[in-house]
Amino acid sequence: MNPRYDFTGQVALVTGAGSGMGLATARAFAAAGAAVALTDVNRDALQQATATLSAAGHRVLGVPCDVADEADVAAAVRATVREFGRLDMAFNNAGIQAPPTDAADEDAAVFDRVNGINLRGVWASMKHELVQMRSQGSGAIVNCSSLGGLVGLPGRAAYHAAKHGVIGLTRSAALEYAPRGVRINAVCPGTIATPMVTDMIDKGELDRAQAVADQPINRLGEPEEIAAAVLWLCSPGASFVVGVALPVDGGYTAR
Description:
Layout: E1 11-15, H1 20-31, E2 35-40, H2 43-55, E3 60-64, H3 70-84, E4 89-92, H4 108-118, H5 120-136, E5 139-144, H6 157-177, E6 182-189, H7 195-202, H8 208-214, H9 223-234, E7 245-248
């Protein structure tokens, strides 16, 4: 059983909240009593997720947002604060994958798109969240890296470059903002049963059996298991945790 948190009176923002780990985390924040702003570039998925949580009695706001566009990110944070009055927690989760590619054949446009969303998008999200949290003197941010931020894999250079970058970004900002009352950490998911992973399997870009075999726990992770880690990192239980890159990967990086 997961720990129970009481985030009543607090406000969370989750990027990429239309599905997968983002939706699971938004749902978990809401269940713990937080008001939640959900952002996603997929308007249909965002509308459905927001409507579902609202129908369950939660205070939620859906904001269309492309994290690769800094103006979009800034507007989403402003909308959150305008609606709920503050910002206490954020999970910068929005990200994409790309087909495996020989490093010598990597297309610059693909590299730029992957890094524009997976790294620059996290940078922009954190930047504008920190503007509000700095003024409050409090807050907790969790950036989504990956096991790909901790190891390398053939064919994944662009993706792993971005995810390694998220960890460097997290650690540096964490050192800067810990004295100001804002804790910043990263979570590093393994292979999780999300729509993105399902799509990769369906396209032949990921072998499910091999992915399971690579994780000593011998299964794929569930989005709710990432949500549990994010909520802990945002909770008082992690009050002395600053600048970590927490693997939640079924043992992949322990080998």
